[in-house]
Amino acid sequence: MADDPLFILVVLSCAAVLVILMLGIGSFGVGGKVAHKHSNRLMRWRIGAQAVAIALILLFVWLRGGN
Predict the structure, then answer these.
(1) How far apart are CA 31 and CA 13, in angstroms?
(2) Contact at 8 Å (CB) between 5 and 52?
(3) 21 assigned to some structural domain
(4) Which of 12, 14, 21, 60 has minimal Cβ neighbours within 10 Å of its Cβ?
(5) CA distance 65 to 38
(6) How many CA atoms lie within 13 A of 47 on its CB side?
(7) How many structural domains is the chain composed of?
(8) Are the C-beta atoms of residues 21 and 46 closer than 8 Å to each other?
(9) Does residue 39 lie within any of the structural domains?
(10) Which domain holds residue 31?
(11) pLDDT for 60
(12) Distance CA 45, CA 48 (A)
């Protein structure tokens, strides 16, 4: 499965969601102007990246048989 390009794309998209989530939580932790400026935007980016990751996961399951 590791040599499947779609699987690698799914893993990378999930990793991108994790990175964006950690950056967003980190900016919440800093507080002040940094949090006010970046936290909301990062969480919106996370929602978009998460939607893409879910779509890729569903595509992967559908194309590979779903069992």
Answers:
(1) 28
(2) no
(3) yes
(4) 12
(5) 40
(6) 5
(7) 1
(8) yes
(9) yes
(10) 5-62
(11) 93
(12) 5
**Cβ burial 25-53 (10 Å sphere, 16+ → b, else e):** eebeeeeeeebeebbeebbebbeebbeeb
Can you tell me which residue has the tokens 């989530």?
21
Q: Tell me the one-letter amino acid at 39.
A: S
Q: Is residue 67 part of a domain?
A: no
Rounded Cα–Cα distance for residues 18 and 60 (Å): 19
- Would residue 16 count as lying in a domain? yes
Task: Give the C-alpha distances (Å, rounded to integers) separating 15 from 10, 19, 29, 61.
Answer: 9, 6, 21, 18
Q: 9-60: per-residue pLDDT in tens? A: 999 999 999 999 998 888 888 777 777 777 888 889 999 999 999 999 999 9
Residues 6+ apart with CB under 8 A from 21: 46
Rounded to 5°, angle at Cα 20 from 16 and 24: 170
